[in-house]
Amino acid sequence: MMRTVVVAGHGMVGHRLVEALIGRDLHRQWRIVVLAEETRPAYDRVALSSYVDSWDAETLTLPAVLDDRVELRLGDPCVRIDRRKRTVRTASGRRVHYDALVLATGSAPFVPPVPGYDLPGCYVYRTPEDLDAIRVAAQRAMRTTVAGRRSGVVVGGGLLGLEAAHALRQLGLSPHVVEIAPRLMPMQVDEGGGALLRRFIEGLGVRVYCGRATAAIEPDRGRMLVRLSDGTELDTDVVVFSAGVRPRDQLARDAGLPVGERGGVLVDSSCHTSDADIWAIGECAAVEGRCYGLVAPGYAMAEVVADRLLGGHATFPGADTATKLKLLGVDVASFGDAHATAEGALEVIHNDPVAGRYAKLVVSDDARILLGGVLVGDAESYGTLRAMVGAVLPADPGALISPSGGELDAGALPATAQVCSCHAVTVEAIGAAVRDGATTVPGLKACTKAGTGCGSCVPMLKKLLAAQGVEQSKALCEHFTHSRAELFEIVAATRIRTFSELVTKHGTGRGCDICKPAVASILASLSGVLNPGGHILDGEQATLQDTNDHFLANLQRNGTYSVVPRVPGGEITPEKLIVLGEVARDFGLYTKITGGQRIDLFGARVEQLPAIWRRLVDAGFESGHAYGKALRTVKSCVGTDWCRYGVQDSVGLAIALELRYRGLRAPHKLKSGVSGCARECAEARSKDFGVIATETGWNLYVCGNGGFRPRHADLLVSDLDTQTLVRTIDRFLMFYVRTADRLQRTAPWLEELEGGLDHLRDVIVNDSLGICADLDAAIAAHVVGYSDEWRGVLEDPAKLARFTSFVNAPGVPDPTVEFVEERGQPTPAHRRPGQPVLIAGPTLTVVR
Amino acid sequence: MTAQLQRHWTAVCRYDDLVPERGVAALIDGVAVAVFRTHDGVLHALSNMDPFSGVSVLSRGIVGDREGRPTVASPIYKQVFELATGACLDDPSISVRTFPARVLNGVVEVCSV
């Protein structure tokens, strides 16, 4: 008989409990009823600020737990607990019996009771709906004609307050931040770090008022006036409260459960309340009297309860309140005993306001043990330092934080050090995973979950893999010890133009089906520079190509090919559409519309391909790359020409982009899309590079993926004019082409890129590596050098001669290719895939 | 009386027409045969039929080597076959038939027996 656990609340922590319990309840002991107050399933509230980039709440959604044991009731919160009958009542009046009840109701924003706090125009910062309301208010303010800048006041200068300031800035308002403590982020950083942080923040146009309280908010001629305790008056259009949170413990209070001194459902270290059947986790819980306003401790509590429900004895290990974040582009990190509260603790400080770098380590009185620290401006060493808290330092603390400081050795970490605080994964657990066969960062992510939360520990995972002696072999294959990126650099630098020369000088043997196409791709990517006017089938290059590139069409399971004529942006005239129909009919080709807004013609035999291309070329088509590691299509919606909602000409841009990048050879296929408005009908965010129109220009999203591991593309830059957009895409593509591994799509490439999206932006927007001129030149050479590859075959008798069924019987079609009719079209005659097929042997001629 | 196999050679193409490290398909007594010329000039002929997919395509595979042994990779599911023996190096239980090949007066010939 299954028992029922009711989870009150579907925030990040409630969701984690569901995940953990379903994941471990192998004997199906529990069914789970989740009662959610919000009408959307659990989402990543930590990333709430990113909502202003897309205004698409879907992007925040956490992966759903799809399991028949889970019943999720949205918009129907638990309103009452009857402990005697062990039932809860929901807002809709439903009664649910529980064997165990877990309170995960989170917290509510604290709004200081200043006069005027409830005026229209005052908001909190907690849900996508809050941000929607702030956006509407900001837009309304933008439309008013009062003189002066439109502005917003943020009450509270902590982490959330600075994120709110960022959001207001994105909405076009001038942000003011009011903080009652003498510095910003008083919980995380010390005075020195706070001072540097303030300089950074003010440099971005945010006005900061520390050491002052908000005294009153008054309506003022359609706007508001915010009075501070020192008499300062601020004109504003919007007020956002982000002055901390309070646990939502009313359910427990009403049920007679004890609460902590400062609120929060009182629980012991097993997260049990005083009622043996009721637990509390996350921000609503006061573990031994203490509440935690961070997600990591909440996750740890969820894991404890999941374990206990299954008969385990886990206890809350105490929280790691370490944080690393990027606020308005500024790195801030704080870990361990950041404020040096331990007895005898020493502070070692490196403060360089010129370079914009502040670092403090808190160490034991003998300066040997690391206790905590604060980093502002440069938090690169955070991962290693945080994991080292409690351990003996490998070097002098001053040396560790000086800019020229020694590289921290991941191997020096103690086994119990926590690498991933989001999922509480220790060095020891990583080691065990490596011994069980995980040899890559994605492998570690899959089996330990480390690195799948905030992702800040990914560089650390790489170091640990290296420290564990896992050779991250970059060798392409047995013929080259180099990675694809290294071979690319070799070819670019040495201007070697043939595979033979490359494998002789830098490899061994004669190559294989792995390295040959990879090198062919590199040579083709660089052909604009190395070999202008060349063709991918010139000379020895022909022998390197995969069959698709060799025959410039898509090999299908029965040995025939499909032809997918290029239809840039999916725009096609009726005349051309008729030509495609005629070609398909005349050559007996199966015809299907593709997902990339093209028409796929299947079943062409090798010897038919040139004749098909001839018909296409004569009608003004070229065939297209539906094969090969190259740009496939740029999908588009219909845009401003026709759509009532479009704000830019998405079709025109899609055509221009497809024509610009067609034929560009890359480590893997490249897909793109352009949407004419935020409704995103072209699904651009599932593409390697996607463009979405805004009122004033284009937003560029990169490294999206459909397929096996879907990934939404990340916003790289916003509101670009067309010229800047194209230049940015040029650089993005060429940087990817130069540095990615073989068969690595842009999405995993970005995930493995050190520094991630910020680094990518630095390289191609800010030119931090000084390579943008090279990238620009390489793309320019490609664009100038592109020619119709299919026409190139038609015009060269030697290349044309390869398109034959049998070299000694060119008129005889392959007798093994057979078709049957399916739904009115030819399809391959049935064969069992993946199994050896018995082939009739040849007839023996026997002479007596 | 002893049965005696008669060697019957079929012309394929001119040797110079073969691109080193790329195959061609030829019809030898009704059977499709893949003919390869490796970088060192040696000729290899094997059944064109890929036993894993049942499709006549081995001549379109990429030629290379594995641990020094010349190979071709099936273009369908990429299994690798040794050119000299027809043995599949990825699955020892599978092999494809090989055929004798020679050059006579500049013309490549393959024997069906």
Structure, described:
The complex is a heterodimer of chains A (848) and B (113). By secondary structure, chain A is of the alpha/beta class. Among the domains of chain A are: 3-108 and 247-309, FAD/NAD(P)-binding domain; 122-243, FAD/NAD(P)-binding domain (3-Layer(bba) Sandwich); 322-408, FAD/NAD-linked reductase, C-terminal dimerisation domain (Enolase-like, domain 1); 409-470, Orthogonal Bundle (Arc Repressor Mutant, subunit A); 484-545, no CATH class. In chain A, 30% of the residues lie in helices and 21% in strands. Chain A has 27 helices and 40 strands. Chain A has a five-stranded parallel β-sheet with strand order 3-2-1-7-19, with helices on one face. In chain A, strands 9-16-10-11-12 form a five-stranded parallel β-sheet, covered by helices on one side. A five-stranded antiparallel β-sheet of chain A has the order 22-23-26-25-24. In chain A, a hairpin with a 5-residue loop joins strand 31 and strand 32. In chain A, helix 13 crosses helix 15 and helix 22 (722-739) packs across helix 25. With 113 residues, chain B is mainly β. In chain B, 0% of the residues lie in helices and 48% in strands. In chain B, the strands form four sheets. In chain B, strands 3-4-5-11 form a four-stranded antiparallel β-sheet, with no helix packed on it. In chain B, strands 2-13-12 form a three-stranded antiparallel β-sheet, with no helix packed on it. In chain B, strand 4 (31-37) and strand 5 (43-47) form a beta hairpin. Classes of the chains: A alpha/beta (848), B mainly beta (113). Strand 40 of chain A pairs antiparallel with strand 1 (4-5) of chain B.
